[in-house]
Write a structure and sequence with these properties.
homodimer, alpha/beta, 8-stranded parallel sheet, globular, ornithine cyclodeaminase, domain 1
Chain lengths: 311, 311
């Protein structure tokens, strides 16, 4: 079994971009070419662990991905997220590769999903990118979505003003024009592309804050409990897109709205199927919500991408 | 992360016996001290993969175990079973150890479960150990159960006479007195401790074959579909024991009998709880069926055992 270290992975990610591979994963998934069992979850006293696995029917590997969040780690000077990915042969079951990514491949494939969403569904002109949250995912999303949209104007809100100020300073150094705001109303009023990246379990944004014509990329909620968007936003959206219709029945913003019968399943479209239709102009008044809960096919694609670049 | 090779694992297993550790795992499990989510399953064209995970509430590690069976591997000169185990910190989520066991730790912890069952529930005098199946699990079970019971008389039945003959010869060399029989009736007539180890999905043994006073250890069936024992055997058993009452609702011999309403949940007892009561004399006419579908707590215990002996 090949063992790949975090620093080798970072080197690959600095040189090459897995975006097109992950994008093709979403398309294959929506064509029914992937087998993905339900996510396995371990809830511990100090953290939670998600185990995702799956394969593409025509593929040579199955993936097992472990991603954990231990929210007290920062006190110990450790990052809260951790994890690894493994590839096994779909022909013989043999372990082929361990990627000791410590969670960064999950961070990257998630940020890439945001970039893919922006590539297909961003407003024609993005006035500013609003980002809710100041962690690693907020940073990666801003970088990737900015690259796709060309917008360097960032509005940021964080629960901790200190963390938000750190975010502002470091992103400023990297060439972004970052405005830190205190109230989410102002964030939504100034941005027509909003990315939510917190582990909140109470809605942070509500319909009355949102401008018509906004794209909302909802990243934070990936369990039945977590929630960043008031259900009203989904009820009033022009379109609702998820990475997996099946997974959205039990996880993420959409699952809540479905459980409350605020929206119907027929209103929910799948990312891979929408991508397959190709890019089309976005209407100025169209509000789109894209709810991402994370798919094993993203893990499979980014793991294979790194393995192929290292071999 | 510490990486432990298969040969290091084999060295540890030759020197030390994890039986008492696995036994305490069953007891802790039945005391409600373990958190074990449902088994995750990948069904591929050429094989199947089970992913088990879990932890003990007072423990320092959570385990993720991958075990696969690819039944066409023998044509390629590869063993059909494969897999690995990983230990992560329950405090921080950090990966602590990868055990590249290629499936042997699953083989051993399963055989150890058989030995634990024999230790507590074998007839006072074992006339012969009957074993159904001739693969690696059949061999390991015979060795371990023979050690516990002191019985070296083995009756073996296999679907392939060639494989059964190979089993007979190699076990004979290791000092066992092995009789190969053609019909399962004779196996059950000559043995009062029977171990079933095949991936059969049709019953191989039925009630009319079984002598009163027999202990049956059912290893092979660990999914809703697999079956080695006719339901009549469960209906007529003096007692039925499973490794996990929860898992037996959906997996193994007992799940079939429960689904068919042939037995009731109140008739099913849990191994760890029975062990905790201590050994007691077995009545000569008492027929016991123990149905094992495999628990993550066994994986956790054997993985920690190996790690502690290597450190």
């Amino acid at each position: 079994m090949k063992i790949v270290t975090k620093s080798e992975i970072l080197t690959v990610l600095r040189q090459f971009d897995p975006l097109l591979d992950v994008e093709s994963g979403f398309v294959d998934y929506s064509k029914g070419l992937a087998c993905i069992p339900p996510v396995s979850e371990l809830v511990l006293e100090k953290g939670e662990v998600h185990i995702k696995c799956g394969y593409l029917k025509a593929g040579v590997h199955y993936v097992i991905k472990v991603a954990s969040g231990f929210y007290g780690n920062s006190v110990l000077g450790l990052p809260s997220s951790n994890g690894l990915m493994m590839l096994f042969s779909t022909e013989t079951g043999e372990a082929k590769c361990l990627l000791q990514d410590e969670g960064i491949l999950t961070d990257h494939r998630t940020a890439i999903a945001g970039a893919i969403v922006a590539k297909y569904f961003a407003p024609a002109v993005v006035s500013a990118i609003g980002v809710v949250g100041t962690g690693i995912q907020a940073r990666l999303q801003v970088k990737r979505v900015s690259q796709v949209t060309g917008c360097k104007k960032i509005i940021v809100w964080g629960r901790s003003t200190e963390a938000a100020e750190r975010f502002r300073r470091s992103m400023q150094v990297e060439g972004y024009n970052v405005e830190l705001i205190e109230h989410l109303e102002s964030l939504a009023g100034k941005s027509n592309l909003i990315i939510t990246t917190t582990p909140s379990s109470r809605p942070l944004l509500s319909q009355n804050m949102i401008q018509a014509g906004t794209l909302i990329i909802a990243i934070g909620s990936d369990t039945p409990e977590k929630q960043e968007l008031d259900t009203d936003i989904l009820v009033n959206a022009t379109r609702i897109i998820v990475d997996s219709k099946k997974q959205s029945l039990t996880r993420g913003e959409v699952s809540r709205a479905l459980r409350a019968s605020a929206i119907g399943e027929h209103q929910v479209f799948e990312l891979g199927a929408e991508i397959a239709k190709g890019r089309r102009p976005t209407m100025a008044t169209e509000t789109t919500v894209v709810d991402l809960t994370g798919l094993a096919v993203q893990d499979l694609k980014i793991a294979e991408f790194v393995l192929n670049r290292i071999n």
